[in-house]
């Protein structure tokens, strides 16, 4: 069995391979060849353990997340994750890896795939609202799929973005890309063709201003609870469709649930990324408005499929720590 830590995980895959695995995961979901039981949550006081199993034909992946609210006060991450991969035929354990790294890696790739299918080929500017873990990885993949020359950053709570900028510059290793900080999300949106949000916001992170958002490719990654939202109503006045991963997203995130309830967004406008990918590949691109939007809530198939890629590459390349079971 392999034990694969954060550094080894990044060393054994390319960004393109991870995005390919995400496209594969969408196809697995489209064809129904999986079993994804509801996640099981066990809690004691305010501390939660979340267990998320997902059966594919090839592997079984179980992501465990520990959500401990007092951790930030102790200088520890709020969320910590572990991914366990078992063989689908025998149930034997194949790998254990860092679940937080896996989440950031696969969520970044989900954003990258959405940009690949929704944004104009020549987009060269991207704005990020919410400069945290997911945001960093969203930018890494955005820069891999479009010829980005300028990145704009805004965060309501983190006033000194220099540590984030240092981490981003190191990960991107593209000195030609200019990184700018903004004093508001309006300033960010005025300058960026692609808008990414990765926050826990309760209220929309952009002004409800159709002229500001017109023509943008909008990727919303955060705020997955029903009472939370990142997107203002103006987005749905500009886009023909709302792309997401699965129908459950309409119940899980306020970004879809609230405008659907208020009649701003119609059920007929909900479209799935898996269909956009398949239709585009088969030469039937969706007829769309200039403004486009993808709302992500994530799904266990992404974790299982990307973990499988990491495990197989680690085995082939002899990366990670092999332990006798
Ligand atoms: N779609 C998915 O598959 C997926 C996967 C993992 C995490 N998430 C979600 O992504 C979000 C971000 O997660 P993270 O791990 O990066 O958290 P994080 O705490 O590392 O980063 C979030 C950042 O957003 C900033 N922020 C919060 N509210 C804001 C606002 N209103 N305007 C501007 N900035 C704001 C915070 O200051 C913080 O810097 C969470 O909601 C999380 O649940 C989604």
Brief summary:
The chain has 325 residues and is an alpha/beta fold.
Detail the topology: elements first, then pairings.
Blueprint: E1 2-4, H1 6-11, H2 15-31, E2 34-35, E3 40-44, E4 47-56, E5 59-67, E6 79-87, E7 93-98, H3 99-118, E8 125-129, H4 133-145, E9 150-154, H5 162-172, E10 178-181, H6 185-191, E11 194-197, H7 210-213, E12 217-220, H8 234-238, E13 242-244, H9 249-252, H10 254-261, E14 270-272, H11 273-281, E15 292-295, H12 300-317, E16 321-322
Nicotinamide-adenine-dinucleotide binds next to helix 3 and helix 4.
Report the C-alpha radius of gyration, rounded.
19 Å
N- to C-terminal distance: 6 Å
| Helix content percent band | 25-40%
Task: Return the CATH topology of the largest domain.
Answer: Rossmann fold
Residue stretches low in confidence (pLDDT < 50, at least 5 long) are none
User: CATH superfamily name of the largest domain?
Assistant: NAD(P)-binding Rossmann-like Domain
What is the domain total for the residues? Answer: 2
- Describe the global form: globular
Please tally the β strands and state the result: 16
The chain-level structural class is: alpha/beta
| Average of per-residue pLDDT values | 96
Largest β-sheet summary: 8 strands, mixed
Gross CATH architecture of the largest domain:
3-Layer(aba) Sandwich
**What are the distinct ligands in this entry?**
nicotinamide-adenine-dinucleotide
H/E topology pattern: EHHEEEEEEHEHEHEHEHEHEHHEHEHE
Kindly provide the name of the CATH class of the largest domain: Alpha Beta
């Amino acid at each position: 069995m392999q034990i694969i830590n954060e550094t080894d995980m990044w060393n054994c895959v390319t960004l393109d391979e991870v995005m390919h695995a995400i496209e594969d995961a969408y196809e697995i979901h489209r064809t129904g060849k999986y079993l994804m039981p509801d996640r099981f949550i066990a809690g004691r006081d305010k501390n939660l353990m979340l267990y998320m199993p997902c059966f594919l034909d090839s592997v079984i992946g179980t992501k465990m997340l520990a959500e401990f609210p007092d951790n930030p006060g102790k200088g520890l991450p709020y969320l910590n994750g572990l991914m366990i991969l078992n063989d689908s035929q025998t149930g034997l354990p194949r790998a254990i890896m860092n679940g937080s790294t896996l989440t950031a890696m696969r969520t970044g790739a989900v954003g990258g795939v959405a940009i690949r299918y929704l944004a104009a080929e020549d987009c060269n500017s991207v704005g990020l609202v919410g400069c945290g873990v997911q945001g960093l990885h969203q930018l890494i993949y955005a820069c891999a799929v479009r010829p980005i020359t300028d990145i704009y950053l805004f965060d309501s709570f983190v006033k000194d973005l220099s540590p984030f900028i240092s981490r981003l510059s190191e990960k991107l290793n593209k000195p030609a890309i200019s990184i700018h900080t903004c004093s508001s999300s309006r300033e960010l949106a005025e300058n960026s063709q692609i808008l990414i949000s990765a926050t826990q916001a309760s209220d929309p992170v952009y002004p409800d201003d159709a002229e500001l958002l017109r023509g943008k490719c909008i990727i919303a990654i955060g705020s997955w609870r029903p009472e939370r939202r990142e997107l203002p109503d103006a987005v749905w006045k500009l886009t023909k469709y709302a792309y997401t991963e699965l129908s459950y997203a309409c119940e899980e995130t306020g970004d879809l649930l609230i405008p659907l309830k208020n009649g701003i967004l119609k059920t007929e406008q909900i479209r799935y990324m898996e269909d956009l990918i398949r239709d585009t590949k088969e030469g039937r691109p969706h007829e769309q408005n200039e403004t486009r939007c993808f709302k992500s809530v994530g799904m266990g198939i992404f974790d299982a499929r990307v973990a499988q890629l990491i495990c197989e590459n680690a085995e082939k390349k002899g990366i990670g720590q092999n332990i006798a079971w």
